[in-house]
Specification:
- The structure holds 2 protein chains of 2 kinds.
- Chain A is of the alpha/beta class.
- Chain A is about 35% helix and about 20% strand.
- In chain A, helix 6 crosses helix 7.
- Chain B is mainly alpha-helical.
- Chain B has one domain: Orthogonal Bundle (ABC transporter involved in vitamin B12 uptake, BtuC).
- Chain B contains 12 helices and 2 strands.
- Chain B has a two-stranded antiparallel sheet.
- In chain B, helix 1 packs across helix 10, helix 2 packs across helix 3 and helix 6 packs across helix 9.
- The longest helix of chain B is centred in the C-terminal third of the chain and has 42 residues.
- The radius of gyration of chain B is 20 Å and the shape is globular.
- Classes of the chains: A alpha/beta, B mainly alpha.
- The interface between A and B is medium-sized, with 29 and 28 residues.
Chain lengths: ~290, ~300
């Protein structure tokens, strides 16, 4: 635990990842401060999901080192919690919400131990934290998308990790769930935990995250939100696929122009992803990396 | 007594296939079971030729080795860009045809005929008995499939949480340090063993039915994995009992009748499952429509 104090939660050196020879991530170097909420932003196909999978050793890396609190991932597995994309699993699986959350305890149970009464109570407690205690015995296919996302978060909480990786936890959830999730993330931060979140909604970045990693195949910027989340860097990250408020089309094309005006944070607000609205869409052209 | 042995063999085959089949259909790998059941043929023939006997052990070893090789080839092809259904199709037909060639080449040496391999003959099970210390201890098939079934049950019981999380969310399983590939190969090894132990009784084709149909039926009837495992084993036993009864009544193939019963039970579950059945859905939709009208 002593080196946990000194070493950063995540340090990545010269990480390169390739799918069939084509590099998806090139020479990624970064260090993440402890006890912060970190947003990972970038266009589709920028390698955001690939990045959080690669640092957890879920996909082979071509080169580079990853250290979690100063040691390789293998040695620090129990300190890491993971929330994969909701679509990555089959929600028709015959099980209930509590059982999914219990899976968060499997890592520390080792090879042969089974989850006991205490683990069950802990899993229920985690469900309570995400406001889902009433749904514990509900078959998971009967839950709404937002509820499924909360179950996944509860499962990550059950892992009792210090560093969390979350792959688009806000994707396709309603406003109430989004609020509940961000509240939870802030609680984790208050407990000095570090959370990395792959995020798509640029509007909310300054509000939610105190640190951003701007990624597009390589690290464009990595630093405190108020310093690096600027219109200039966003242009660099999204490669001119963004419309800024200076554009005459802004009000018409922005899908969230109303919420932008309510947003009190000044940095780079009003910048909107316009790609899908302007001519050929970059999302369909590049596709998202698996 | 002979009926008892036949029904017992059928029950063991159907229950052990149904049990493992649950994991196959949940991982959407039912066709991998199909592939294994066919591609083990060359393994069986080679074991026959090498051991020059019909002993169960060399056959189990040979077939399991080929079964795992099949899975490995399919995985390698898939990883190098071949679509997974094409990879399965190419691999198992290639290996199966090697088996067919071997059987026809060594017909005089191998006491195996293709009909038996494809369709099995459970009716002869009671006469092929095992003797231990001078005592007759029952049909060889019962001991073969019985011990393989026991091995499956113990393995899955020991590693239930690993098998469950690997089936539900392999990425998460890998992230918490569970060796996903190891458990994949353990499952496939068990499927290979079960297939080989079953094929003499029900044949390579119907073994696929036993892998898929009882577990697919159980899937319609429950929302819990542990219950699904139990139900699919129970359905396996029902298939055997009613299949034997049907076959005696119609004077037809027992393995065929077992599969007909399995198909019938699946149809019943599809129609009348309390939660997912067609009838239940129609009724609840009617009720909803009436409620909307009343408002």
């Amino acid at each position: 635990m002593t080196d946990k104090k000194t070493a950063p939660p995540l340090a990545v050196r010269d990480l390169t990842v390739a799918y069939q020879k084509k590099p998806v991530l090139r020479n990624v170097n970064l260090e993440i401060p402890e006890g912060s909420l970190i947003g990972i932003v970038g266009p589709n196909g920028a390698g955001k999901s690939t990045f959080i999978k690669a640092v957890q050793g879920l996909i082979p890396v071509a080169s580079g080192q990853v250290e979690i609190y100063g040691k390789p991932y293998r040695a620090q597995r129990k300190l890491v919690g993971y929330v994969p994309q909701r679509e990555s699993v089959d929600w028709d699986f015959p099980t209930d919400a509590l059982d999914v959350v219990l899976m968060g305890t499997y890592g520390r149970l080792g090879w042969f131990r089974r989850p006991g009464k205490q683990d069950r109570e802990w899993a229920l407690e985690c469900l309570r934290k995400v406001g889902m205690a009433d749904y514990a015995t509900r078959q998971i296919s009967q839950l709404s998308g937002g509820q499924q996302q909360r179950v996944f978060l509860a499962r990550a909480l059950a892992q009792e990790a210090s560093l969390y990786f979350m792959d688009e936890p806000f994707a396709g959830v309603d406003a109430a769930t989004e609020k509940a999730i961000i509240q939870l993330l802030n609680e984790l931060k208050a407990q000095q935990k570090t959370v990395l979140v792959v995020h798509h909604d640029l509007q909310t970045v300054p509000e939610y995250f105190d640190w951003v990693v701007m990624l597009n195949r390589r690290v464009i910027e990595n630093g405190p939100t108020h310093e690096v989340f600027t219109a200039d860097n966003l242009q660099k990250t999204y490669g001119g696929r963004l419309q800024t408020p200076t554009s005459p089309h802004f009000a018409a094309i922005s899908p969230r122009s109303t919420s932008a005006s309510n947003n009190p944070t000044p940095t780079a607000t009003g910048i909107t992803l316009a790609s899908s609205f302007s001519g050929t869409s970059c999302t369909t052209k590049q596709g998202d990396q698996p | 007594m002979n009926s008892f042995w036949i029904i017992l063999t059928g029950s063991l085959v159907a229950a052990s296939c149904g049990f493992l089949g649950c994991f196959l259909i949940l991982r959407r790998m039912a066709m991998l079971g199909d592939a294994i059941s066919h591609s083990v043929l060359p393994g069986i023939v080679l074991a026959f030729l090498l051991s020059e006997s019909r002993d169960t052990l060399p056959m189990l070893i040979g077939a399991t080795a080929i079964g795992l090789i099949t899975v490995f080839i399919i995985q390698t092809l898939h990883a190098s860009g071949v679509k997974s259904d094409a990879a399965i199709g190419v691999t198992f037909t290639a290996l199966f045809s090697v088996g067919v060639v071997l059987v026809s080449m060594y017909t005089d040496k191998v006491d195996l005929d293709l009909d038996c391999v494809l369709y099995g003959e459970i009716a002869y099970v009671p006469w092929d008995t095992l003797t231990f210390a001078g005592m007759e201890i029952g049909p060889r098939a019962v001991w073969g499939i019985g011990s393989v079934f026991l091995l499956s049950l113990v393995t899955v019981w020991l590693f239930f949480k690993q098998f469950k999380i690997c089936a539900f969310d392999p990425a998460m399983a890998a992230a918490v340090g569970i060796p996903v590939m190891l458990f994949h190969y353990i499952l496939m090894g068990l499927v290979s063993l079960t297939t080989v132990a079953s094929f003499e009784s029900v044949g390579a084709i119907l073994v696929v039915a036993m892998l898929v149909v009882p577990s697919a039926t159980a899937y319609l009837l429950t929302d819990r994995l542990s219950v699904m495992l139990g139900v699919s084993m129970l359905i396996g036993v029902l298939c055997s009992v009613f299949g034997y009864w049907l076959a005696t009544w119609l004077d037809t193939s027992i393995a065929g009748a077992m599969t007909v019963v399995a198909g019938g039970l699946f149809l019943l579950a599809l129609l009348f499952s309390p939660k997912y059945g067609v009838v239940a859905k129609v009724i609840s939709q009617r009720r909803l429509r009436r409620e909307i009208k009343e408002i």
